[in-house]
Amino acid sequence: MGLFILRRLGVMLLTALCLTFIVFFLTNLYPNLEKLAKTQGNFRMSDEAVASWLDDRGYLDNTFVKYGRWLGVAPGWVTEKDDGTVTGQCFAENAPVEDRATFCGVLQGDWGFSLVFKDEVSNIVATRLGATGKLMGFVLLVMVPMSLLVGVLAGMREGSGLDRSLSTFSIATTATPEYVSGVIFIAVFASSAFGLKWFKGSATQAIENATFENFTLPVLTIALYGMGYIARMTRASMTEVMTAQYIRTARLKGVSFGNIVLKHALRNALIAPFTVIMLQIPWLLNGVVIVETLFNYKGFGWLLVQAAGNNDIELLLAVSVVSVVVVLITQLISDIGYVFLNPRIRIS
Amino acid sequence: MDPLTWTGPLGQFLDPVFYALAVIFLIAVVIQIVMSIASGGTRVVTNPDGTLSTAGGAYDLSASATRWSGLALLLIILAYVVLGIFGGPAATGIVGGMSQQLIPVWIALIATFAVSITFKRKLGLYGKLFDSTVGMIGFALVMFWVYAGAMAGLFDWITTHESLSQVSGMKNKVPGTPMRGAEEGEYAWYLLGGDNLARDVFSRLFKGAWVVVQIAPLATLFAFMVGITLGLPAGYYGGRLDTFLSFLANLILAFPVILLFYLLVTPEIVATGIPNYMATVLFVFPLIFVGVLLNARYYTQPSFRTPLLIVVLGVMGWIYLSLISDGGSKVAVLPEFLDLFDIDPGILVVFVSVVFVNAPTVFRIVRGLALDIKTRDYVAAAQTRGEGPWYIMLWEILPNARGPLIVDFCLRIGYTTILLGTLGFFGLGLESESPDWGTTINAGRRLLSVYPHAAIAPAVSLLTLVLGLNLLADGLREESLKD
User: Which one of A67, B75, B135, B173 is separated from A152 by 20 to 30 angstroms, measured CA to CA?
Assistant: First the structure.
């Protein structure tokens, strides 16, 4: 078990390095840098001015060197101008020589500076991640019990009317992407067209003050899309368990149907959905980006769109590190959890 | 001219019946659900095949109530559509108007179903689809959009106005608004209203369907070619190759899709030509696939194989080269006079990124299936016969993996449709006046709380298409498991 986790951690690290390098490479392509220079400097810069602006800030070095700097394994750039002023990546312009750090990267805990938000990347990401954490928490709170309930109810009597109607419902939810259900929800529950002004179509205020009125629609929109898949997996797992020999034995011994479902079947049927739920979390991230854009909720997904749209390199890298880490950690937890929950694997 | 209501004069008679039946149906469904949970204690009968079922009682009563009220509801909806064909917008409102515009689609659908059901025993898996209700509903939904998209896109049949023409005074108008100063021969209404640029939502909807119906299946097909060509050897050989390819697949899968889209589809990246290089790599896989497929089958008859391969690969290679080479882009290997067609660069980028995102998942599925099937006896028999590894992979393993792959293909077209919508929703790739559904939803969402109709129409269409594909996949899965 220990070796397994160690090996998985190694693969995770390698994956994270590769992915951040890809993001780094794509964001540091010359057309992107040119756009960056023009938005930061001035839009009427000549090509030479752009080149020297970029050169002064170390953007024109080898991609691997730049990536090393971002990681904190290569020394940061230092530029000495003709008039003698020295600027560098890791120190302010007039810092004394002995206070000048050589390395400043992720390994030193320095995530860089967002050129669009004019703030430390780590600050921005932490705040936005908190906001999204709240959203995700509510989503899981709604989605997991609902989907398990739907799946168990559908799976306990395969082929019954209840099974068919609930299965159709789950298929319908998996066929409804967030931007479709969100649009329909806003139109029905928040617009003046139908007159049902029950909820608000914007969740901007929900960051400080989440109420039933402004938080229901975004939570419901994300939860609904994820729900169908988990419910179908739970149903499959439940139907499999319900045809098992030990359930038949229990029935023949005269255990009531309710007891069979609750005490005998449920515990075994919930092992597989656990994995599915963990693996569904990275997919929720997609939904979060869409829903936060649609409902104007300024969380992590909104940040991703802003960072990517403005080619805010260091912010984008931090965002991708966080999302990649989320993906890999949930995969790890689902693997470990599966082994841990399933006695057949645990004991052998 | 008066604005149209949804069901027109006909609705005065049918609407009350419709609402009453809808309420009855909903109540019946709720009762049935409650009953089926609570009916654990009703009389249980053992069937001859050993299964158990409940017999009679309140549950059956509620079930038949649901069935009959549902059927009646369906009949009423059918009546709206059929009477609409004859009545047109003046007598039967917006629903009738739409139904009349869609006459060619109805004819095509009825013809397809009539032919398929008549010959269903001779049509293999496709024919068996018509044994399952769910599958038929799914197939009908999918074919509706395929026919509607093709007819609107190729022949301009269904649309009532130009998808880009703006008519003054029609900005954000509600569905059924008569066109101001409509001339002779022009369609007199905006059936589903006007969008924020005063264009006809109804016409754009079906023009957009053509974009979706073209790109989604083709992109899925390419993703399958890539996934199969890489997944089969990974599963069959295993070892280093498998480790390496699986790592690559997991790498792409660990990427948040939207971040990947933003990184690939922005104009700056397109300017560097990266999507064109990716297209060059991804589009070569069908060539490899078909080449290896034919070579593995006919390598014992070189006199037949060599000309076959030359012709097939020659034609495919030409198409491939004209696909990737584009006048203004980075990859232009083919001179202008040999270039068969030029793909709109926006569509090419969208296509490439969708294929790129889908291929790893297909790879994993194919790899898993190959791992499972390679232990079967017929594979061992082929190995003993001395068949080559590619023959075994493509002619022994792949045909036996077709069931799950066909089902996944249907599901994946739906997923690709969703991805295309996501791209449009973020305004990536396609131009902003493109009528495809994602872009239209994106344009409509700004005024959603005041004028929701411009965004709802494409949203509901996307929902029905993807739902149809999911139901179709479900029906296929059920039928393919039966034997």
Answer: B135
